[in-house]
Structures are given as C-alpha cells and as structure tokens.
Design brief:
This protein is mainly beta. It folds into two domains: 1-17 and 57-104, no CATH class; 18-53, no CATH class. 9% of the residues lie in helices and 20% in strands. The strands form two sheets. The protein has a four-stranded antiparallel β-sheet with strand order 2-1-5-6. The chain has a two-stranded antiparallel sheet with strand order 3-4. The radius of gyration is 15 Å and the shape is elongated. 19% of the residues are buried. Bound molecules: zinc ion (ZN) (2 copies). One zinc ion (ZN) binds at residues 3-4, 15, 17, 23, 54, 56.
Length: 104
Amino acid sequence: MSDHKISADGLSIECHAPGNADCRMRPDCDTERWDEFYCTAHDPSHPVIGGHDCWKLPWVNSTMLDETYSGPGAPVTIYPGRGVRISWEGDYCTWDYERGNTNA
Ligand SMILES: [Zn+2]
Ligand SMILES: [Zn+2]
C-alpha cells in the first residue's frame, strides 16, 4: 500500500505511512528546519523522532491539488485512491502519481 494516496473525495492527499517514515520524522520543537538527526534552529538541537503527523500533507493540501502537481499531463486528472509520491523541493512540496500502480 502506498504511503500517500488521493482521498476518496479526490480533494486532498492522505498519509498512511508508518510512524518511522521520513514524512513523520521531525523534532518535537516548532522549527521548520531540520536535518536527518536534529533541528537546525536551536542550540542545543532537538532530536528528530518519529510518530508525528505527516509534515508533507499541509504543503500539498493547503491549495488545490492541481497547483502542486508536478507530473506530466497537466492539468492533472484526479483519481481517488491512487498512490502518489510527495517530493520536497527545498521550499515546498509537489506530488506525482506512483508509476505502475494503477490498481491502488
Ligand atoms: Zn529545535
Ligand atoms: Zn506522509
């Protein structure tokens, strides 16, 4: 099963990743910047730990899905339930459908 997929109503992306997945790993503090192990905003740094809500979803769900779509064939056709990949672009996230996964 895909970690991320289009919701049943086709209006947003859902996260089904386990608590130790990249998208649910972050420091407990309110920083928006962290590396693989620690936040980069505080001294001493706070460790990155799992079990948080997915930090990617607010990026892709804060606007219409066709505005954050990065795949080919825009305007995008929304397929509820289809698995997607969310990519961090340095300042924002974009998403694309997973390849070879048409029966999600
Ligand atoms: Zn911190
Ligand atoms: Zn996620």
